[in-house]
Each structure stands twice: as structure tokens, then as C-alpha cells.
Amino acid sequence: MNDPARTRSKAPLYGLLAATIVGLFGRQLSVVALPWFVLSTTGSASKAGLVGFAVFLPGLIVGVLGGVLVDRFGYKFVSAGADVVCAAATVLI
Length: 93
Description:
The protein is mostly helical. Helix content is 89%, strand content 0%. It has helices at 4-7, 11-42, 45-73, 75-92. The radius of gyration is 19 Å and the shape is elongated. It starts with a helix and ends with a helix. 2% of the residues are buried.
């Protein structure tokens, strides 16, 4: 017979994987590019280090608190909130 599991399209899965790869690549690029930009425009290694720390800090905080937030508020709410915060940070940059 016609099994729905076999006829389902895998396009959404491939789209999710592509978006994840692009997002991870962009994140890693910003970790290198932002401090480098500050260093090249100001010539100050301390300012570049401060920007590097500011880029690294959110990942550290989320890594420590992410599980607690998901347990308390649920993964859908935390995921949507993280997307909103990420969009706001991107606009600010």
C-alpha cells in the first residue's frame, strides 16, 4: 500500500539542515570578524579583546543557563525568545 512515511518530502529537513549550517557559519564568522574589525579600525588590541569577550559571553551564559530555561519555560518558548534576542542583536550590530 501507500505508506505516508515513505512518500513524505524531505525538503523541510534539508531546509532545516541548510539553515543550521548557515547560522553556525555566520556565528563563527562573527566571532572572528568583529574583533578583527575593531582591531583594524582602532588599532587597539584591548578594545578588540573586549569585543571578543562580548561576542563570547552570550554563548557562555546560554550554555550554562540554557537547560534551566528550557526546563522551566519549555523548549518552544525558549527557542522563540532566543530567535527574537538574536534578531535584535543582529539589528544592533
